[in-house]
């Protein structure tokens, strides 16, 4: 997994304060991401009536990089994937509250992968303009009151304040090695029981169809593949370091499966149609020789897994279960989460 050692990202919390009543759906990721894309294009694009793939400046366009993330035609993976994984993850407020009154705070988290962090000012300015345009059905306005950089240990550093309008750089990336060097790992037995709790729907395909089941092998392979591509495309990992994960998973068993399918919908302003975003939510537990996958699963808590991660889908937390002399049957979070 040499390419994984080059994977790094930055995590930010953007605090939006409502100026008007803002009406949002129960799942807010599609609305926030849709507005973000529309405003970003309005800021950057001189050819708004033209399709991105027909644009003369498409190769250097930040909007196209983050919203379409295409593979170049000569890329070795261009036949396998229609699009590359996007270089960011948006994590909306997970509250089911629909109405936000003036003064209410909506925290939105943003994960920027690798070199895309250099474009942080575009992200911040886009949210400033989103506040002026308004959010939700009633276009309720908000103010981006502050932006905080989140370090690996959970420390928050304010890098933007609405009152000053100044944005300071943040130099605390979170690396894969942060999870690989977690001091808890040497003390774990090779065989452990692990619970994965999905807070937002996860959409994973088996044989090109969305699956209503989540075998451990599928979860790990999809997460591994996503992490390697992010490392290659945005963190400088070489192509020859990206290899298929080939190892037996027969010894890993599902001990508890409380996943259920939940349907979400969103309206795509680009495609002028309602699209489904359904997936699995809830928790599932695995038991077996999975200690070696804990760092990968931990970084997946930040980069998510599956389709539509830019809407906030595929967000999960992991916890150890029933370690002898440790958790006594309780679910114990593994340290390192922000």
Task: Outline the structure in words.
By secondary structure, this protein is α+β, with helices and mostly antiparallel strands. The chain folds into two domains: 2-174, Alpha-Beta Plaits, CATH 3.30.70.1890; 176-333, Alpha-Beta Plaits, CATH 3.30.70. Helix content is 21%, strand content 28%. It has helices spanning 29-44, 62-67, 120-133, 176-180, 216-235, 294-303, and strands at residues 8-18, 22-23, 88-91, 99-100, 105-113, 142-150, 156-161, 174-175, 192-202, 205-206, 209-210, 253-257, 260-262, 265-268, 273-276, 279-288, 316-321, 331-333. The strands form five sheets. Strands 1, 3, 5, 6, 7 and 8 form a six-stranded antiparallel β-sheet that branches. Strand 10 (205-206) and strand 11 form a beta hairpin. Helix 1 (29-44) packs across helix 3 and helix 5 (216-235) crosses helix 6. The two termini are 24 Å apart. Residues 324-338 have low confidence and may be disordered.
